[in-house]
Specification:
By secondary structure, the chain is α/β, with parallel strands linked by helices. It is about 35% helix and about 20% strand. The strands form six sheets. The chain has a seven-stranded mixed beta sheet with strand order 10-14-15-16-11-12-13. Helix 6 packs antiparallel against helix 7. The protein binds zinc ion (ZN). The site of zinc ion has 7 residues, from loops.
Length: about 750
């Protein structure tokens, strides 16, 4: 089917206003059925017949009539990305009930309304908008929310872009890139980057938007839309679905964005979805009209993966360097997400195994890092650590507890003795995702046991430097430090502050054939191909210090020493760092400079430390604001002054900061995931001299500040200004003291 949007010859906006309310499909089912069965319904039906103006029509029918896409957005607010784009491309609305931004397709903004005859689109040129139809109820909620946001920080009254003419019809793939470069408002850096992309694509034989080379997500689709006006959408703005099996969607790279009784609006990266239709029909299903909606393939696959894990497994991650593998002798617990969606944990007929699968599934899909299984009064309680806090995810009668514990111990090949401390592992697969689970059993009073499980999510475990949210300054420091052929890199922070993730990312950034990397760890949390990893082993006398000395014989260039917890290990690390090795290690200290004084108090000679130390880094994790529901607020004057005194801002803030709200995506907590704050003190000649001279802490701090080192607290404020977290979160760090 030929679907047209802004190029529609019969402009839907020129049609007479449709004076009808749109009600949900389910509400309408009574009207569709042949005979009303009770009087009330009969009244309603006859009333509808007498007064056609009041009759509701279905969202999908109205959409079909106007050649638009019907959409049910999974959340009732406009995404932060859409709001930002609106501010960039639009002006304040000139009438009531403007179209509301609900998402973006790369540089295009998706606008939604319940009534296609409304015309106020905030002055955003039609060709830069993808317009969709919403239920009235959803429109109203989003519109009210948006009104509040705009009141805080109004848009300008006028918009120079408004008169922008759509690209002339018939442009080819290369010409549309040129048109975009000339007409779309871009920052200098963006323009430069896009210019490079154009030259990289020059001369390429581009037949379809998927042929562009090096384009960021959604960009190819956006250009396709500018050329043709065909339906397009962003898969990130779709809800979950249960109609099609995930494997089938994944195989064909499609995802349903809207399913009605007669048609399916199907996200695809090619208008030909026949292969998918064929396979669907061959499975014995009735034919149904498919309307292809163009979308970015990678984003479609991410939507399938997300549907598979219902929210938590948000990204199809691809680890390029450092392929990860499961060790062969580990038990694999296979959990089927589709089956899990059907489990009702309160159902007394569940088998213990079903329940355990559900609990594991629940813990992982809520982004849990640990799972605790324990007796609590007369219940068996399951708690998951989610974004740092424990949350009860299930509880049931304590009589079940021994069965559960026995099952977990079976998975991990543990003996069934009650009164010993045990450590073991098993692995589970949830859809395509594989997760290693480290289990420890601890005896408790009255013959009870408590199990603690830590999920070692291998796909999330190894990050690229670019995923660490580093500032330009930090990124330069790391690149320069990791390029050194000798020196000591210290990372400090409490347990659970993300030190391991950071260190693995540092190592992985130089993981090449020409460099010999060795680690000594306790435990080995992630296995990385290309890196030689050794586990400490108290029984065989391998601790950090002896292990490190043994490793030196294996001619390493770079070494990771899991922890320098005693003077002997610290000295061995420093000696290695002074004799032609780059050594990375962790230490318990509150900040980057106290790490220095800690080592000296452990008995390390200041002149040796100052010679060896390349970088000292302190790290904390704070909760990340949910990007879907965070709300902009103007930063109070007092806070702005505080930021100003700390050198975080130089003038009155134009941009809002954000406060937490709550939605489906974040389990109503307002936060998803965490942001690492990194205080980085690189040691140059002058800093080294101060350390070697035994300068007092106050002087070291002054010296560091003069070199642009920001404290953890200041790094936190930067994240608040950037809209990634809240002051509430940063203040939890304040007892560590501002630098
Ligand atoms: Zn949220």
């Amino acid at each position: 089917m030929e679907s047209e949007n802004y190029r529609n010859t019969e402009d839907p906006l020129s049609e007479p206003p449709v004076k009808v309310g749109i009600e949900s499909a389910s509400r309408m089912q009574g009207l569709d059925s042949e005979l009303p069965i009770n009087e009330e319904a009969a009244d309603e039906v006859s009333a509808a017949r007498v007064e056609p103006a009041r009759m509701a029509i279905k969202l999908e029918e109205l959409a079909e009539r106007h050649g638009m896409m019907p959409v049910r957005v999974p959340r009732n607010s406009c995404s932060a990305a859409a709001e930002n784009l609106l501010r960039k491309l639009g002006r304040s609305p000139k009438g009531p009930e403007p179209w509301v931004p609900i998402g973006t397709v790369g540089p295009l903004i998706i606008l939604g309304h319940y009534n296609p005859s409304f015309t106020e689109t905030w002055g955003v040129p039609a060709c830069l908008t993808v317009r969709v139809l919403l239920e009235q109820g959803q429109y109203t909620v989003i519109q009210e929310d948006l009104e509040k946001r705009v009141a805080y920080n109004p848009l300008p009254e006028s918009n120079a872009l408004e008169s922008l003419e759509p690209p002339p019809a018939g442009l080819d793939h290369h010409e549309i890139m040129e048109w975009f470069a000339t007409n779309y408002p871009m920052e200098e850096i963006e323009a430069e980057k896009f210019g490079r992309l154009i030259s990289e694509n020059t001369g390429l034989d581009i037949e379809r938007f998927t042929d562009y080379k090096g384009f960021p997500r959604h960009m190819g689709v956006a250009l396709h839309y500018l050329r043709t006006g065909e339906f397009c959408f962003n898969p990130e703005e779709t809800g979950s679905q249960e109609v099609f099996p995930d494997q089938l969607l994944e195989k064909h790279g499609v995802y349903p964005m809207f399913i009605s009784e007669t048609r399916i609006y199907m996200l695809a990266s090619s208008p030909a979805v026949y292969a998918f239709e064929d396979e669907w029909l061959s499975m014995g299903h009735d034919p149904i009209e498919m309307v292809p909606v163009m979308a970015d393939l990678e984003a479609i696959l991410a939507a399938v993966a997300r549907n598979r894990g219902k929210g938590a497994l948000a990204q199809v991650s691809n680890v390029e360097v450092g392929e990860l593998s499961l060790s062969d002798n580990t038990n694999l617990v296979d959990i089927d997400p589709i089956e899990m969606a059907r489990v009702n944990p309160q159902n007394p007929n569940n088998t213990p195994e079903q329940l355990i699968h559900w609990i594991l599934y629940r813990a992982v899909t809520s982004r849990g890092s640990d799972l605790h299984v324990e007796k609590y009064f007369n219940t068996a309680r399951f708690r998951a650590r989610i974004d740092g806090s424990l949350k009860v995810i299930h509880s049931c009668s304590e009589e079940m507890l021994p069965r559960f514990i026995a099952l977990f111990k079976n998975y991990s090949n543990m003996g069934h003795a009650h009164q010993t401390l045990q450590d073991a592992r098993f692995a589970m697969s949830i859809g395509k995702k594989r997760i290693d689970v480290r289990v420890s059993a601890v005896p408790c009073r009255k013959e009870n046991q408590k199990l603690t499980m830590r999920f070692l999510d291998k796909q999330d475990g190894i990050k690229e430097l670019s995923e660490l949210n580093l500032s330009q300054r930090q990124s330069t420091i790391i690149t320069q430090t990791m390029a050194r052929d000798q020196g000591l890199v210290l990372v400090t922070g409490p347990t659970g502050s993300g030190k391991t993730t950071t260190l693995y990312a540092f190592l992985n950034s130089i993981n090449e054939d020409t460099i010999n990397i060795h680690t000594i760890e306790d435990p080995i949390e992630y296995e990385i191909e290309g890196i030689n990893q050794t586990q400490t082993d108290a029984f065989n006398g391998i601790d950090f210090a002896t292990g490190l000395r043994a490793l030196l014989r294996a001619d390493p260039d770079v070494m990771l020493v899991g922890e320098s917890r005693d003077a002997e290990t610290a000295m061995a690390s420093i000696n290695a760092a002074l004799t032609g090795h780059l050594v990375l290690t962790t230490l318990h200290a509150n900040d980057s400079l106290r790490a220095v004084s800690r080592l000296i108090s452990m008995g390390v000679e200041p002149y040796l430390l100052s010679d060896a130390l390349a970088l000292s880094q302190a790290q904390r994790l704070v909760k990340r604001l949910c990007p879907y529901c965070k709300r902009p607020v103007q930063a109070p004057q007092e806070l702005q002054e505080f930021f100003y005194r700390n050198g975080i801002i130089k003038a009155q803030m134009q941009e809002p900061i954000y406060e937490k709200s709550g939605c489906d995506e974040c389990n109503e907590t307002g936060y998803t995931g965490r942001v690492a704050l990194m205080e980085m003190t690189p040691v140059d000649d002058q800093m080294a001299e101060m350390i070697s001279d035994g300068a007092p802490m106050s002087e070291l701090r002054k010296g560091a500040a003069a070199r642009g080192v920001l404290s953890l607290y200041q790094e936190g404020m930067i994240q608040v200004v950037a809209g990634n977290t809240t002051m509430e979160e940063i203040q939890r760090l304040s007892h560590f003291g501002a630098m």
